[in-house]
Amino acid sequence: MATIVCEGLMKQYDGGQPVLHPLDLHIDEGEFVVLLGPSGCGKSTMLRMIAGLEEISGGSLSIGGTVVNDVPARERNVAMVFQNYALYPHMSVYENIAFGLRRLKTPKTEIDRRVHEVAAMLNLDALLDRKPRAMSGGQQQRAAIARAMIKTPAVFLFDEPLSNLDAKLRAQLRTDIKRLHQRLKTTTVYVTHDQLEAMTLADRVILMRGGRIEQEGTPTELYRYPRTIFGAGFIGTPAMNFLDASVKRAGEGVTVAFSAGRWQLRGKRFQHLHDGQAVKLAVRPNFVRIQENEKVDDTLVLNGAVELVEVLGAEALITVDYSGERTTALVPASSVPHTGDHVRLALREHELHVFDVASGENVSLDPVDEAAVSLSTPRPHTAPGVGVH
Length: 389
Ligand code: ADP
Ligand code: MG
Description:
Helix content is about 25%, strand content about 35%. It is of the alpha+beta class and about 400 residues long.
């Protein structure tokens, strides 16, 4: 196992615009970090630089306390698993897994012991004689992981390893990978554009956008304290609701006005909003409910007509339309309204986020939230960890 430390790490091609702006990142020994972000934001580039498959344009990268900028890939003791399984088609699963050790001239009995050991961890025991084409995508990807594991790397790198699998296999292999990490505790960097994968796998999520780190933190921190509109919209399913609004101040009172009404905000964390400020109000669908009785004190309400009902199982997602804007609410499937019904949606003020439109920043994090968020900003670089090279 090893720490990974990036200081001012950057990447540009042929002196063009940086595809990765200088960034600092400290990954602890044994940590499972997910690089999350939309296509093209620089995730694979970052991962390939760690692997040694991509030249570093600036800054430094250390693995296990050693600067590896100029160390070739094969000497970095990292193993990488890609989106396409990349198994040798003419070799059995056994031979595919054994390949890396054979090249190192490891004794036969030792190879045999290791192949069976990793095959058992990945439930491949019964498939060792198969050729890749006679296996499902999930099995092939498990074989690719076993092949990467066999040399007990100090660092595991995964680049969208589940993207080619159907939803059910994806969920299965996701739990396999998580279980494997709990057992081996190998430092892992995992790239995905799928926020659910990131949330379920990561100790820490690095949310990226346009070659920069947008926010980093535990899955819960990113979910509860989105620092930007982008982060708020990217994380969580069903997706965050946004309402365009403008702030009205009258004396001590803070009101936000939007197409379908206005809300008075009483909480301290809204008191610095200024008159005329263009904002986006945001609330997650699971914090929006259908209000049957009278308004209670900290409740904000919205009236509209049910446009869509999507039953998901135990819950249903309802879409409510009011003056052309839409808000969704995740409600128990046992009490769904009908399409066309007029409903009153309610949310608690403390579930509301307010974002400044001009800066894209969350302007409603209270000091307690801020403390939680600052925990997730880049940590000071600690002493290099002990590498196992
Ligand atoms: P992601 O994995 O997040 O989808 P990538 O790391 O693959 O993104 O790419 C980041 C950016 O770098 C993209 O804008 C991509 O077009 C650019 N890029 C990747 N490889 C090259 C290359 N060989 N030459 C120039 N630009 C590249
Ligand atoms: Mg990629």
